[in-house]
Design goal:
The complex is a heterodimer. Chain A is mainly α. Chain A has helices at about 1-35, 40-45, 50-60, 70-80, 110-145, 150-165, 165-180, 195-230, 235-240, 245-275, 280-285, 290-300, 300-330, 330-335; strands at about 85, 90-95. In chain B, about 35% of the residues lie in helices and about 20% in strands. In chain B, helix 4 packs across helix 5 and helix 5 packs across helix 7 (about 175-185). Chain B is globular, with a radius of gyration of 21 Å. Classes of the chains: A mainly alpha, B alpha/beta.
Chain lengths: ~325, ~350
């Protein structure tokens, strides 16, 4: 078991490194292959009226004259060991994990990401709790009352939920609940959990529900399919033959077995969601990581983009690892192999 | 309608009201898009404690559907059950679901065909036995565990104290079936239904499991129903045998009657298709021609008539009128239009010599 965990850990670190390499290649190598020179790259980060000397100086400062692998190496050692940067106003120390300085406003990227991480994390956790509760419950009930009015209604809503984009449901719910009814604050507000838990939940309620609607739908369908399958298994008949109450048959024997694929998908969804709830964050004006990534992309602020990508990769890798370990907890057949 | 005339000697004595399990005119129909599937259509039998009934028939003859009906396990909405199933005098057909649930596991238990798929893969064997025991017995987890270990020991699992914490997939097929039996017997049921208990097992293990069932039956004095398509199994265990065809009883009598003087052409067919050691390997088996009938459109008259070699001798009655189950004397019931004397002659002169 220990060696299994270690092997999985090494694989996870490898995965993260490969992902950063690919991202690095996309943003740093591809423009070069397309014919860009260090100077043309640097012109993006200086004013329109900049002289050739300024451009060269900027290119030098951003390290564009180094070969791309060397640039990557600098970035990676910065992450691992921390590094020092000359951002024009003297040398500054950037402690590890140093994700570099914004090409635009010369702010260090790491603190910015750390400031935004709780927002994205809050959003993801709250939404996950909601969608797991409602999605799984709906799926179970649908499966048990297969073909009933409830089942059909739930599956229709689920289909609608999957099909409706966040930017539509988000805006609609904002306009109804925030602006018309005034139940929740309009977007753009985030109160820290540590400041005021109630305000925190109140402000995030609408984004949670919006996000959860999308995922609940998916989870309801997944749970329903899983339950329909497991409830037809022989061991369910055995459980009934023992004289178990139906509720216990459903939950302890049926749902437990149907949970495996749900756990898998959930791990991946959750890991990914932390850095990529871009639409939700944008619609509700939440200063999260997704927004940072979008801003970074828009502004060619490569360190920002790389930083967010690294973080997402780490979360997905961790989620994967947790899922793999959970497998062993859920399914004893995995444990002994 | 089946007719059971009260008379007792060697065969299954049909005096009503005195048997532990009494099934009378049981019908289990399923409404489907293609029509009504009459899986069981007017079946009667009974069983005393300490006795074993073998229910034999091809796939789709209604054996398992019958046992599921007794256990009250037909949960599908399209299942319609009528007739009467009495367990220890208590009527189960139409009874409150909760009442039947409380009987399940405690008064009647079931062993299933495939122990691997019939045990939950995520729980330990001990856990599953404990669960079965604690539903019906208000005992501590510890006491239940001790009971589980004792049960595992009783069904012949070595090192039960260790194996109790193993998962089903860590057991061999035979061990799993033993564990399954331990689970079924954990509440000391009065009725044990074994639905093809040895079908999924190695031949070498089959005999052990049958021995185990027989020993435990003696020990617990329970009534046992063995459902199988394997005549060897019922020959081994059963006191009475019920041969089912297309959801009805074709022949019903003591094991001795059914093996030594069977009177239904279908039973002859089953006996003929049973491999035997005491015959030269060059002798061909004698399969029953044709295939089991559709249960949506059961053949007119005798359901077996399209496959019966003797129908031409009897004539049109087989094609028109469904034969009832009649006692030929000695509590040996046969549903066939061939007159009893004629049947006995055919068996003695034509069938029996071919089989021996």
């Amino acid at each position: 078991m220990i060696s299994y965990i270690i092997r999985r850990l090494i694989a996870a670190v490898g995965l993260v490194i490969v992902i950063t390499m690919i991202t690095f290649a996309i943003f740093y190598l591809m423009p070069r292959l397309a014919g860009a020179t260090p100077e043309t790259l640097a012109t993006r980060y200086v004013g329109r009226t900049a002289t050739g000397a300024t451009v060269e100086q900027t290119a030098q400062r951003l390290g564009f004259y180094d070969p791309v692998p060397v640039q990557y190496w600098h970035w990676l050692t910065g992450v691992v060991n921390g590094t020092e940067f000359d951002i024009g106003s003297g040398v500054e120390k950037c402690p590890r994990p140093c994700l570099g300085y914004s090409f635009r406003n010369k702010d260090p990227v790491t603190p910015e990401i750390m400031r935004r991480l709780p927002v994205s994390f809050s959003l993801a956790v709250g939404a996950a709790v909601l969608w797991l509760t409602f999605g799984v419950a709906t799926g179970v009930l649908s499966a048990l009352r297969r073909g009933s009015f409830f089942d059909r209604a739930a599956m229709t809503v689920a289909l609608a939920g999957v099909s409706m984009p966040i930017f539509w449901t988000g805006v609609m719910s904002l306009s109804l609940f925030s602006y018309k009814l005034g139940w929740t604050p309009p977007g753009g507000q985030y109160t820290k959990l540590s400041d005021n838990p109630l305000e925190w939940a109140h402000g995030l309620l609408l984004p949670w529900i919006t996000l959860a609607l999308l995922f609940s739908a998916q989870y309801a369908r997944l749970t329903r399919a899983g339950m329909l399958e497991t409830m037809g298994e022989d061991y369910i008949r055995t459980a009934r033959a023992k004289g178990l109450r139906e509720r216990r048959v459903v939950v302890k024997h049926g749902l437990r077995a149907a949970l495996t694929p749900i756990v898998t998908i959930f791990g991946l969804d959750f890991g990914l969601l932390i850095g990529s709830a871009v639409l939700t964050e944008t619609v509700f004006g939440l200063p999260g990581l997704g927004q940072l990534a979008i801003d970074g992309t828009k502004n060619n602020d490569l360190p920002q983009v790389l930083g967010v990508v690294l973080l997402i990769a780490v979360f997905v890798a961790i989620a994967n690892l947790v899922v793999d370990l959970l497998y062993a907890v859920i399914d004893p057949r995995v444990r002994t192999k | 309608m089946t007719t059971l005339t009260p008379e007792s000697s060697r065969g299954p004595a049909p005096s009503p009201g005195s048997h532990y399990l009494e099934v009378a005119d049981l019908q289990v129909h399923f409404t489907t898009d293609d029509g009504v599937v009459k899986s069981v259509d007017g079946l009667s039998f009974h069983l005393d404690r300490g006795q074993t009934l073998g229910i034999v028939g091809e796939s789709g003859s209604g054996k398992s559907v019958t046992s599921m009906a007794v256990m009250g396990l037909h949960t599908a909405k399209n299942a319609h059950i009528s007739g009467s199933i009495k367990l220890g005098g208590q009527e189960l057909v139409g009874a409150d679901k909760e009442t039947v649930r409380k009987l399940r596991g405690k008064n009647m238990a079931m062993i299933f065909q495939d122990p691997l798929s019939s045990m939950h893969p995520f729980y330990t064997v001990g856990n599953q036995i404990v669960e079965a025991y604690r539903i019906h017995n208000d005992v501590s987890r510890k006491a239940a565990r001790a009971h589980a270990i004792e049960m595992l020991d009783r069904v012949g699992i070595p090192e039960p104290g260790k194996r109790v914490d193993a998962f089903p997939h860590q057991f061999s097929g035979g061990m799993r079936q033993r564990a399954m039996i331990a689970m079924s017997l954990s509440c000391d049921p009065d009725l044990l239904i074994a639905d093809e208990p040895t079908t999924a097992l190695d031949v070498t293990v089959q005999a052990q499991i049958l021995d185990l069932i027989r020993d435990l039956q003696k020990e617990f004095d329970s009534a046992v129903v063995i459902i199988t398509h394997d005549l060897g199994v019922v020959a081994e265990l059963a006191d009475d045998i019920l041969v089912m065809y297309a959801g009805r009883a074709a022949e019903y009598g003591s094991a001795e009657q059914l093996f030594n003087s069977p009177e239904h052409p279908y039973t002859w067919g089953l006996l003929g298709s049973m491999p035997r050691f005491d015959k030269a390997p060059t002798d061909r088996l004698l399969p029953i021609k044709g295939t089991p009938p559709s249960l949506i459109q059961v053949p007119e008259g005798c359901a077996f008539n399209p496959r019966c070699d003797f129908q031409p001798r009897v004539g049109s009655a087989c094609l028109v009128e469904r034969p009832d189950l009649h006692d030929n004397g000695g509590d040996h019931f046969v549903a066939c239009h061939i007159p009893p004397a004629e049947r006995q002659k055919i068996w003695a002169q034509e069938i029996s010599p071919r089989l021996s």
